[in-house]
Design brief:
By secondary structure, the protein is an alpha/beta fold. The chain folds into two domains: 2-37 and 410-511, Immunoglobulin-like (Sandwich), CATH 2.60.40.10; 39-400, TIM Barrel (Alpha-Beta Barrel), CATH 3.20.20.80. It has 14 helices and 24 strands. The strands form six sheets. It has a nine-stranded parallel beta sheet. α2 packs parallel to α4 (121-131), α6 (181-197) packs parallel to α8 (241-263) and α12 (357-367) packs parallel to α14 (387-396). The longest helix is centred in the middle third of the chain and has 23 residues, at 241-263. The protein is globular and about 80 Å long. The two termini are 30 Å apart.
Length: 514
């Protein structure tokens, strides 16, 4: 009777777990199932403007640039991050091969000059990030055309030379005019060029649309010089000038989102606006009014679903009531009827200067109050030069790896379960696997049971085998799942040495069915 009961349980579990084809039954107990893997977006911004994060200075050799970028990606992987946000277009320039915009001066010191020996930094970064199980989101500045800290003249192929009618001089900057439809179309074309040619996991916009206000020598705000486009496109729109400017940014965000989804619907679209939408929202909040000053109605973008994740820059501590991290994060989560991801930016660079590591740890713990949590470190430099912060992260919040939360509105059909094969001998097990379908696999979740405890590894798609060694005996079970491009998990494939024990065990080798 006991054997019949075990047989019934096993047959019921087989289609759910995706067990291998060998259906031999024994009276051995079924091992406990592994826990679901943790879900949390863990990322850092890699800024290139002004050589902020990478490269450390212009003019480094190709080998030096690659070595620095590999060190960043290695640190991200070691800390159990799962994404990096890589700035590829700081000011109408390119840290990748482009026929639309010139090479960035932050690579060679001269705008328009390619790295020598030649390589494509974005292609290199994507390949190396994926090898380490990291997503790479390409970060664009949509309308800034020249930074005030630029060190070389604009290249002949720069938009200020090829289409000066689209460019406005604003204080120390050059800026594209968001009120001109040709500008919006141009910036979307630049993004789509990258999307079509590179295997990026996300497209990311920061908070620069219209510029932050600059002042003249008398301390008076300088208005953005868009009189011509206002007269041509705005005066007869029925909108006030401020509302027209907000409409221009809204229109850009909507069209950008829809255009990206028409080409590669699985690619995440993220935006990182200023952390306060408007003062008094909620009532205790005071500070800069991004809605009024830079014409960003970021709450509308979230509510309309024109992004897959919103990363408000909450660069303040938990305690101060006027800019409280936790108060603002709660407010943003309450503005989210479409249940998009809210993954705040945190000013991790303040650790060691203004904050102890505990402030960042506590902020991360605040994000865990909400479904599908996540956060982004500003910037990756904070993780490269602060051992106290790194140690606290690994000890307190990054003890185990985590999958990026799934985005079911981008697709919810799971990939098929992988094919798993396990060979064991002595105290070792060699697991091999492969994709059983045509889906693009981004990651594998491998879990092993020993001494009653499950250990979880999240492995890159290129990894197709691993060795599992245990001090006392073979693993009691090995579980494997595939993860697709939008974070969906396949059914579980479960292997146990007792279930698949074959007659040649006396030779010291157990072979699983494939």
């Amino acid at each position: 009777m006991k054997v019949k009961l075990l047989l019934l349980v096993s047959l019921l579990l087989t289609p759910v777990l995706g067990w291998a084809a060998d259906t031999s039954i024994s009276a051995n107990p079924i091992p406990p199932l592994p826990p679901p893997p943790a879900r949390e977006f863990r990322a850092a911004w890699i800024a290139t403007v002004g050589n902020s994060c990478w490269p450390s200075k212009p003019g480094l050799s190709t080998a030096q640039q690659k070595a620095e970028l590999l060190a960043i990606l290695d640190r991200a992987a070691a800390l159990k991050l799962n994404a990096v946000i890589f700035q590829v277009r700081p000011a109408c320039d390119a840290l990748y091969q482009s026929s639309l915009e010139p090479w960035s001066e932050y690579l060679t010191g001269v705008q328009g000059r390619a790295p020598a020996p030649y390589y494509d930094p974005l292609a290199f970064a994507i390949t190396e990030a994926h090898k380490r199980g990291l997503e790479l989101h390409a970060w664009f500045n949509p309308f800034r055309a020249r930074h005030f800290q630029s060190i070389s003249p604009s290249a002949p192929g720069h938009i200020s030379k090829t289409h000066p009618e689209l460019v406005r001089a604003y204080a120390k900057y050059l800026w594209l005019d968001p009120g001109d439809p040709a500008v919006r179309d141009y910036s979307i074309r630049v993004v789509m060029d990258v999307l079509k040619r590179y295997d990026v996991d996300g497209i990311h916009m920061d908070d620069y649309f219209y510029p932050y206000h600059e002042k003249n020598s008398k301390g008076v705000d300088i208005d953005f010089p868009d009189d011509a486009t206002w007269r041509k496109y705005g005066q007869n729109s029925g909108l006030s000038r401020d509302d027209w400017r907000r409409h221009n940014v809204d229109y850009f965000m909507e069209k950008l989102y829809l255009t990206i989804k028409s080409e590669k619907p699985w690619v995440s679209v993220g935006v990182s606006p200023f952390g306060i939408w408007r003062p008094k929202n909620p009532a205790t909040i005071a500070g800069f009014d991004a809605y009024l000053e830079i014409y960003c109605d970021s709450r509308k973008w979230l509510q309309e679903g024109w992004c897959d994740y919103l990363a408000p820059q909450l660069y303040w501590g938990i305690a101060p009531p006027a800019t409280s991290f936790s108060t603002l994060l709660d407010w943003w989560n309450n503005q989210n009827p479409r249940h998009r991801h809210i993954w705040p930016g945190m000013d991790s660079l303040k650790v060691g200067e203004k904050w102890q590591p505990a402030e960042i740890i506590n902020q991360i713990n605040v994000t865990h109050r909400y479904p599908n949590p996540g956060h982004i470190h500003w910037s990756v430099n904070a993780l490269m030069h602060n051992g106290a912060l790194d140690s606290a992260l690994l000890r307190d919040v990054y003890r185990t790896p985590a999958l990026i939360p799934a985005s079911p509105w981008l697709g919810s059909t799971p990939p098929p379960p992988p094919k798993l094969s396990v060979n064991t001998w002595g105290r070792s097990a060699h697991a091999e696997w492969k994709n059983s379908g045509t889906n693009t696999i981004r990651l594998w979740v491998l879990q092993s049971l020993a001494a009653g405890n499950w250990t979880t590894q999240i492995l890159p798609a290129t990894r197709l085998d691993t060795y599992l060694d245990n001090a006392s005996a073979n693993p009691d079970a090995i579980a494997l799942r595939a993860v697709d491009r939008t974070g969906n998990l396949s059914q579980l494939v479960l292997w146990t040495p007792k279930k698949y024990a074959s007659p040649d065990t006396t030779k010291g080798m157990n072979k699983s069915a494939k």
